[in-house]
## 1
Amino acid sequence: MIRIYRQLLVAQIQAAAQYRIQAVLWMLFSIIRPVIFLAAWTAFLPLMLVCLVIALTFQVKWSGEWWHLALFLPSIVLAAALSFMIGWVVATATFWLQRINTVNTLLQRTSFIFAGQIAPLSLMPTALQVISYSLPFAYVLAIPAEILRGGVTLERGLLYLGGQAVWLGLSILAFRFAWRAGLHEYSAVGA
């Protein structure tokens, strides 16, 4: 296996050698790519081993239905996309602001409260629950966790998925608006 890999590497180096800079970069990335891959797996496997030991020690059991897992998969994808788009909306604020740290800190603190990181949303007062479900932060963290935990009915889980889709659509629209306005602002300054 190593011999075949070496032969392929030598053949690809010879093919790429006609362009010196590309050959050097290609060799560098050919060496780095397997190292990064191995580093990721060496970090992942011990983490999974620790999780397995904890699960066996505390006799962790999943008590949800099959459809909880089926709803969790699209929920986690929508949550990741929503988190990404919220980050981009905040990032476009740099068109108008010199320092974005304050806005980013405000976003993180608000998310910390209303995403269920302090406590599960079901333990919060009713007024805070209403606010939490009215903001997109709960749809990033609390909703996927609640679905996976098995704490929702099928109808409520589908409603939560719809809420995630609505917030994702709104964040995409907000990003497009902010991006266009930001480009207009940037080009108006004389760039």
## 2
Amino acid sequence: MIAVTRKLVDAVGASGHVRRFHAKTTIRDNTVGEHTYGVLWWLRIIVPDDELTKSLLLAALQHDMPEYVTGDIPAPTKRACGSAFDKLEESVLAELGVPFATLTPDEETWLKLADIIDGMAFCVRERELGNSTLRATFVNYRAYFSAHTEGVLLSLASARTVVKILEERFYDGSK
């Protein structure tokens, strides 16, 4: 159990309201709270039941919580920072008394795929609302999905089906 402190309570309250995609023009905001909900649901949809572990769900729940300190950092910036950014996130969680989730390589892949799929789904919703400015972002997410599934020995049929549906909706604009 995590020790309840004022700082933790404040962080939980603040982290869900952090705005994502702040460097992009969007019709509606997407918050860390909405994104976390999406990631949890995408995990439920794409991960086989026997692989959907408590550790994976807890990691999904807290994966962007440190953004209440850092703000939403675009993926290319995170990659450029490398392990320094990971250490910053770990230190934010440690300061709150939240253990950094330890995942198996397969669980890390599942979490990354759910995170990517949720980003793609946000782009689709924006496109359907008339925002044509997120095409490059959608294409980048699709490329990330391909890069993170190449050579992976997981059962990816559900994840690939979700991505196919999102691609169809994004490119033809239909619901």
## 3
Amino acid sequence: MNQSRTARTPGNAAQATVNDALALEALPAHPPADLVGLLAEFETVGPVVHAARRMRDAGYERFDVHSPFPIHYIDKAMGAPRTILPWLTLGGGVAGFFAGLMLVWWTNATTFDDVATSFQGYKYLISGKPTFSLPANIPIIFETTVLFAAFAAVLGMFGLNKLPMLYNPLFRSERFRRATNDRFFVFVMADDPVFEYQTTCDMLCELGATTVEAVTDPGGPTFEPSPGNAPPDLEAAIATRH
């Protein structure tokens, strides 16, 4: 099961120390072998946006924000790079333009005897007019441009979002089900270059998370802290705080 802890609550310093110790005890002293990341829960928009900014400023790159409705400025708060989807759409449109141009030229202005009949063009002279005229073929070229651009946009969106995704370790979290209702979440992936188990937990709590949950995936890869960035023993931290 995914294990969680409750973040510190407002109060006097002594009570905060006790709460921190209990919170640390609610999580395993060392990160689970099947750890995927840490999921922090927030109650309102303001704290989750502030948390995203702080995570960005701290150097985290592999984290995401989940909310029941779009937060239009969250991309900037997270420092997320601009999507390449417009370029994919442009590429599809350019390919459609030349495909349409080639189509009308091949079918209306060419005839090659050494090509199979099914693939030959139909060069037909009408009143001495040119066999190929760009203005007359603009409607076809326009339609293929739009068609290819639309396919590039839709397929690119699915590909960039890794869809269809039939399984995600976050689905194992009971709390995460409220992401479509009334809760906001920040999920920090364990393979982030600056991820460190205890430090990330403490940072999420300090940012106002009501709970922090260790998300695991028994069928996923084994979590291996990078050399020189191994998580400290949480039991020692607990003893220090008492």
